## 1
Amino acid sequence: FTMFPNEALCMDLSVGEIALYLYLLFREDRKTYTCYPSGNQIAKDLNLSRSTVRKYIELLERKGLISTEQTSIYTKKYGKQNGNLKFTILPIKNVADAYFERQIRAQQAKIATEEALRKYDEKHKKNNSK
């Protein structure tokens, strides 16, 4: 059983982003909020291509829901090798607060632009009617 945060439903996530986010929530260690699934394993489990998985990882990172960190492994035969990504699920409250703050700023910018256009139109209507 994996709980999906209600706040995430308000964040304009695509179906693929939701699927990947749920997958990572399911796989995470509840104490450290991290997990290490390989890109191939994610692609296989979600029936997606590797490039699609990479795209959704990038989108979830940009939206602040997860962070990733490259890991390394050491083998006797090959030495240091790239490991799987370390996924960290970020606190949803911080993510939601930042998302809604961006929404508010965008709405305020839209209102300011509309007000400036209205003033411009009023000024030019007066000048044109003379």
## 2
Amino acid sequence: MSQTDETMRQNVVTGKKAGIRVKTIAFVGLMGGVSAVLMLFRFPIPFMPPFMSFDLSGVMEMLGGFMFGPMAAFCIIVVKILLQLVIQGSFSLGTGELQGIILSSCYVLPAIFIYHRNKTKKTAAAGMAVSTVLVAIVAVFTNLYMIIPFYVNLFGMTMEDIIAMCTAVNPAMKDAMTMALFGIVPFNLIKFGATSIVTFILYKKLSKFIKGVIER
């Protein structure tokens, strides 16, 4: 092979890599946008704390992480939060958005690191199971020590007022401890457990399609 042919081949390879990089960035942005849209369809779960809402926006974050790695997943989370601020604004002076970044990161990043060590269905399921339990635990601390105190101070409420709201929908939640055990933990297990199941079902089909478009 002549030097000219080798140079041309290298230029083609470089151009292809650049094209793949651009398409990947575009898909990461698109997945962040879809994640933000999914947040618009959130709703409360019966017998759970009324200030918590269910949505499946984490599906896009986990899918993006499985396909493109942890940095892509974090970018999807940030895009989602920024778009949410543009669409709906902030009702918590940024506290809720900070919690969103923390919980989303606790959910997707451990699962992605576990999966990328050995890319099989078994490790994907195991990673999401670990992440679901972890985020449910972290949510107890972010709610009790960040979100609830913020709303209590902002609206001139007391912790007893928050607990009374929870007791009204579930009598088992009588204090901060029972609110965590019977409200915050089960809510997040349901939310992120459902997200994991949907991700597990969609991943192979969507990843083949998206990677086919990117590498074309």
